[in-house]
Each structure stands twice: as structure tokens, then as C-alpha cells.
Amino acid sequence: MSTIVMTGGSSGFGALAAAHLVRSDDVRLLVGARGAVPYGEALPLDLARLRSAEQFAAAVDERVGSRGIDALVLNAGIVRPDTDGRTADGFETTFAVNHLAHFVVLRQLLPHLAAGAVVVLTTSGTHDPSTGAGLAVPRHADAELLAHPDRDPGTDSRSRKAGQHAYTASKLCAILTVRAVATMSEAREKGVTAVAYCPGQVFGTGLARSLPAPMRVAWSVLGGAVLGPPLRALNATHNTPENAGRTLAELALGRTAPPDGRAYAALRRGRLTWPDPSERARDAAQAQALWRDSADLVGLAT
């Protein structure tokens, strides 16, 4: 039996991925969530609290025991209209939820990955200026400044743009984290495959739940049966929740594997591609710095 651990499996395309996973033969799915989940076994997890991330990882370890984890899917994420929010730990909310809490889970569960395990972090093409997504692109992946944007002299004075940057920078961090994992001797010795997965623009999910009401309505309408199909026909980055979820499940199950030298998977027109990520995302030194600085922020030894 394969054991898969997942965040972001309670709604949106993550729930559709979870449905695919539990329909597979001999799969045990553990899902971290704040409440009930439609598929798999729920374990308490509040990504806005680092202590909760630690407790979730410990609970997974207790459930799994010596069997090991065959796939770790870190899919949960949020986007906010600004950078005003702070978690219980004092960190900017988008960065803390999208990156820091997942970093804690990953750090604690790395030793418990089985041989040949798969690690998937959900990212976004918005990390790359060449995608032309229309959001403020990342200026850096400096963990200290992203955790405390009030200390960043480059933080945009326009709340909406600052919020967009927090989101796209956190997605840049996902790719850099995958790059850091791939260089670790422990991961190489176990034959771990680490992938950053961009599902494209998937309207109609819960990602926009923290945005103002007009934006939430637009997000829902653009994913509807009337506007969704023509938008997907016009823009290669737009995908259905069903395609995004099924592809995520295939990655987690190891049925879709990256070509040699590739770790960034981008769903385009319902087909998985393996392009180069942005230039910043290919910076090996930045990947190591992010790993080290993230560890410092959450109080873990490097």
C-alpha cells in the first residue's frame, strides 16, 4: 500500500486530485486540513500557525511509522488583496501559509520519505514575467523580507500590487524549494523525485476566497460553463479543475515522471509540459539561501 500525504485536498482541484488518489488501488491518503475532508483521512492542520504544521508532521509520522511516505503533496495556497495580514507567529500571511508552513512540514517529513518517493509542490506560472499573467512579478525570494514586508524598501505602496507580489514570490519559493530538495544527499540516496507543479489558471476554485467580493464573483464566473470554455480556447494557461486535479494525482502516483533534468511541470491546454521556469527560479545559490533563511525564521537547524 502506498501512503500519500497531502495539503490542499479539501476543496478546489486539490479535492479532485484526492478523489483520483483514493480511487487508485492500495493508496492510503492522509490530508491536512482545518476541518473535514471529502476524501482520505483528515489530520488537523492550520497553515497559519507553525506549531500546527509541526504537530501535523508529527501526527503523520505517528500514523505512518516505519512504512514511510510514498508521496508528499504540498498543494494548499492562498492569495490576499494586500500584505497587511500577519499570522500568529508574526509573519506575513501569504508567505507564511504558501511557503513557511509547508517548509516546516517538508523539513520534518523528509527523513520519513520512502525510497523512490515523490514530492510535489504546487507553484504558479505567475512567478515568471514571461508568462504575462498580469500580476506583480517577484522581485526576490528573500525569506526575511517576504516574512516582514514592512522591512522591504521595495514593497509597493499600492496594497493590491503588494499582495500580488507576496503571492507570486511565494510561488517562486516553491520552485526554489524543489531545487534545494533535489540537491540534498538524503533525497538523492533515496531516489526522491521533486516536482514544482503549475496547474495554470484554474478559475472557480477557493483560491480567491480572501479577495474582495467583486473579485470572488469574477473568479467564479470566469470558471463557469459559459465563459470558461472560450477563455481556455484563447489562453493556454487556463485549465479546468478536473484537468488540474487529475494531473496532480498522476504526478503524486508517479505515473507521470519528469524528463531528465526537469523539475518544473506546467499544465497548458490540459497537457503537461516541462518548460524552463524563470531565471530567478533557476538560481541555485538563491535556492540554498532560501532553504537556510527559511530554517532560521522557523527555528530549525540548517
CATH class: Alpha Beta
| CATH topological fold name | Rossmann fold
* Span between termini: 33 Å
Tell me about the largest β-sheet: 8 strands, mixed
Using the CA coordinates, give the radius of gyration.
18 Å
Q: Quick one: CATH superfamily?
A: NAD(P)-binding Rossmann-like Domain
Categorize the overall geometry: globular
N to C succession of SSEs: EHEEHEHEHHHEHHHEEH
Number of continuous helical runs: 10
Structural class: alpha/beta
As for the number of domains, it is 1
- Assign the CATH architecture: 3-Layer(aba) Sandwich
**What proportion of the residues is helical, as a percent range?**
40-55%
DSSP, total strands: 8
Residue share in β-strands: 15-25%
Low-confidence stretches: none
In summary, what is this structure?
The protein has 302 residues and is α/β, with parallel strands linked by helices. Helix content is 41%, strand content 16%.
